[in-house]
Structures
1.
Amino acid sequence: MEIRHLVTFQKVATLLSFTRAAEELSYAQSSVTTQIRALETSLGVELFDRLGGRIRLTPAGEKLLEYAEQILALTEAARADVAGGDGPSGNLVVGTMESITSYRMPPLLEFFHHRFPKVQLSLRPSLCAETCHALRQGTFDIGFLMEQETRHQGLETVVLAEEPLVLVAAPGHALAGREDLSLDDLRAASILATEAGCAYRDLFEVELRGAETMPFLEFGTIEAIKRGVMSGLGISLLPEVTVATELEKGELATLSWDTPFSVHTQLAWRSGRRLSRELKLFIDQAVRLMRDETPLAESC
């Protein structure tokens, strides 16, 4: 087995596409096919089932993927150890979301920019379910989640903080200043929200819906939602960290409704994965810079 063949195999196995693997590796697709066939010939097994235009790993391929990742991680560690002196380097693909990237991550991004400029952080906007899938498939190296659940099959996670949620409106909104708002009061209001698949939006929708479907006005970004709310278009449930400035300035008002559920900001990576020194560094610094002071249990 050649290292370059294992690199190609790992890329095809995680993407489940010869075409996309060729694009990311800057190879001709024929070169990817040739390398995979050479690897299959050397091992005497088929690594992929070809199903029309789709592929999937065979049981032998699944076993090899585990070994390939360990071999490649050791190869990278050996290269870094022997070269020495250069410090952490390389690329980390990070799954994240707007609320975390914009309001939680800046100290972490600043740290890596100044202290470890050779570590390139490639941020990939993604919903939590998509991030979990990408982590399990190996497309993302690490990912941030904001969910109610803190245990995820096939992933190791560390909880960074419980994320307070607040229901906000423009100060002049009809519900602003009212005490003990009921669900019926909220159901009668226009509600601005992120797209479906966002954990706190989905929980809020279930809480309001009951037996009926509640129409939400979907906006592409939290900034767009805030502007819509400040303009009087409706109310919105958002992480407190995203509206702290507007609340302090009086541009938004908190409504009198206690959120009956909670979500947690978490950091996740695939279980059993051998962590590179760069990935270990990222995890350690994320915990140091982003974790709430209140002790929170780790889970996996």
Note: Residues 165-254 form a domain with the D-Maltodextrin-Binding Protein; domain 2 fold (CATH 3.40.190.10).
2.
Amino acid sequence: MQLELIRNATLKITYGGHVLLIDPYFAPRHSLPSFTGRSPNPMTELPGSIDGILQGVELVIVSHLHTDHFDTVAKERVSKTLPLLCQPGDESSIRESGFTDVTTLLQTTVWQGITITPRQGSHGLGPVVEKMGHVIGFTLEAPGEPTVYWAGDTVLYPPVADTIGQVSPDIIITHSCGARWDGDLIVMDAEQTVAVSRLAPQAIVVATHMEALDHATITRQDLRQAANTAGIDPSHLLIPADGETLHLSR
């Protein structure tokens, strides 16, 4: 498989002979409000043109409707006729934006030979979850490809650990910027990302969703330093830059 980190959670994945776009967030740098007062968002530009990012895309997956996962620019630029998978409850809003081929990821779905299974996530723990709303992750499986677990906007909690144990993924994609909302952790931080690496020593962990938003508390350098201190092999915890493409196998 080929994985290109665009920015934040936005990924372009070539998998099973097809091109998937995950959580498109195309807003220009500093065009959206700050979350914390530190900086307007996003804090970085896209690493390439939107036309280039969209080239070849055959399926779009939207994990939830926070603006840093599916923004106004993406809603305008992504083809309205592309098949789009979303979590239950988001389909009406997406259709209202003009998308005509929207399917809810209620259960395991097979698309063009790729098996896509929704997985539980929790956008924080405790009262903050009500503010953040429901989110999902998912796994990807296809003949000849590594099994991928895209954890999404979640902290490390028992259902995430259970998914790792049950699926035994080859690749785990985490959101690792340590974002906080009113002081509460809402995605994984360095400590939790290291813990994921230890839970799945057979897997390659790919840490994304970093250095793009002003409520993040962990940089790529912070994560690498924590992983090194914990004795995590750098080849088993990859921290790609925006625009970087990884070639991954079983």
Note: The chain has a mean pLDDT of 98.
3.
Amino acid sequence: MADAAVRPATPGDAAEIARIQVETWRTGFADLLPALVLAGLDVDAAAEQWRAAVAQGPATVLVATEGNWVVGFCSAGPSPESESAAANDVPVPDASTVALVGSLLVEPRWGRRGHAGRLLATMAQRLRAGGATRGIAWVPVRNTASLEFYRRAGWAPDGVVRTLDADGQPLRELRLTGSLDLALH
């Protein structure tokens, strides 16, 4: 394997982040999301959103590289209180120090090479340095690969489930939570 690394994203990475996001959703989430939703994904619009996110925050965006290629990305930052609240919408005692991993994607052709683990571990280190004490992520119930990835990282469902509307089709997600004290093995 060529040199693999994780670095902060730059606005110049936005187009590649958007391409990876759209390509990964279209190939990896074809059985989770309706075809109409996937067909409607717009790489250019996503690139503009990522450019703004990288430049303005509040989330941190990291990219995984292998050699000269950007192969994946992770965005995370302070969790909105509504995302970390208990199932009855009551704020949790540590709400101010919970971080939300909003996206963690590696392009499928670069999978199983440790990029996702490097992204999560590096992001966890940055989040801890910023005062976060634990992380959360929302994962579709039927996304067994992502559920297993987070399980191997020590994260687990915390009992909160939500159902999103994906163009008239319900998309159930589990909220996972775990330590930000992660290390690469």
Note: The domain at 4-179 is CATH 3.40.630.30 (Aminopeptidase).
4.
Amino acid sequence: MIHTDAKRRVAITGVGMITSIGLDTDATWDALLRGVSGAGPITLFDASDQAVRFACEVKDFDPLQYLDKKGARRADRFLQFAIATAAQAMEQAGFGDGFAHLNPDRTGVIVGVGIGGLPLLEAQHRKLLSRGPRAISPLLIPMFIPDMTTGLLSILYGARGPNYATVSACASSGHSLGLAFRSIRRGETDVMIAGGTESAITPLAVAGFAAMGSMSMRNDDPERACRPFDAHRDGFVLGEGSGMLVLEELEHARARGAEVLGEIVGFGQSADAYHMTAPAPDGVGACLAMRQALEDAELTPADVDYINANGTSTLAGDAAETKALKDVLGDHARSVVAGSTKSMTGHPLGAAGAIDAVISMLVCKHGVIPPTINFEEADPECDLEYAHRGPLEQSVSVALSNSFAFGGHNACLAIRRWDGMQR
């Protein structure tokens, strides 16, 4: 049965994160508040002949903490990350044994993936060229395709409801969370696993992004390379990782005694309709997504306390986002902190929206805003408060989490602090 009550509220009851600065939520949060950069020389492959030789890699990840040996062999790195962060989120939500005691038809999985199993694809292509078609693994296709994240998670946890992957470049997991939020709110489901995952630090991806001129070239100083909104920014730093959330209809969560960590209250999505890779200079698409999220949440610009900015450290992107924030928030933009945690995690592509959403929830929960590191000289086009002097202790009731992507895809989530009060 599908309910049509638009007032159904969507709680966050579990979160998981794996990033270049931490293998779980607590470790990542601690590193963020200390201003730790995850950037360093690439170790996942020999990058000596690459124009860009550094990235924000996940360090010391052991898939055998979450999978047996056979399962680990059958899952490419992006799948391993997804399974691990889903396990973290499910454990925190009190679903460590899966959804067996729930109605499986009303539980689902939506995960955003920008690229998928590129490391596996490149390795298998090398086999094809050197040894021929018979050397190719029969698991190539299921291990490579982005939607296998949701397929595997539904099998692991017995979720028979909505099940698909969203692919919209770096907005992929912003979209996955927004669509999962809507599924619960419109009554299609009661519980959803949603988020994003990515592992695409490979020779082809690094060469491709470098050829576009979109990545920082600071090979001699990786930790200071990602500098969102700084006057001398020169591109993003490629990252990897995963963020996963358990979303749940509020009364469903209360009925089983779950701890509510935060609440998603609005979602907006749009397109720039402008260019394959460059953002619309006037920020028109970003403005539309943010305004939709606020309208969906029945909030005004004055209600916003914090923006987890897309803030990737590109010249055009950071300037366009700043303009969009000023257009949407008006004079209130001067009172809002618009920080970019990608200055530390790097840009994990399809996983970015989910990681940023978890961070936004933590900001609301703990009342501390992580810094935007490496901001040294102000850019006249980027003239807001970016928490560049260090972490800020500040009460945050409402946060917006922005995800803007190649192709002109835009997603914005409105996240509210949980205070236990009915609204």
Note: The radius of gyration is 20 Å.
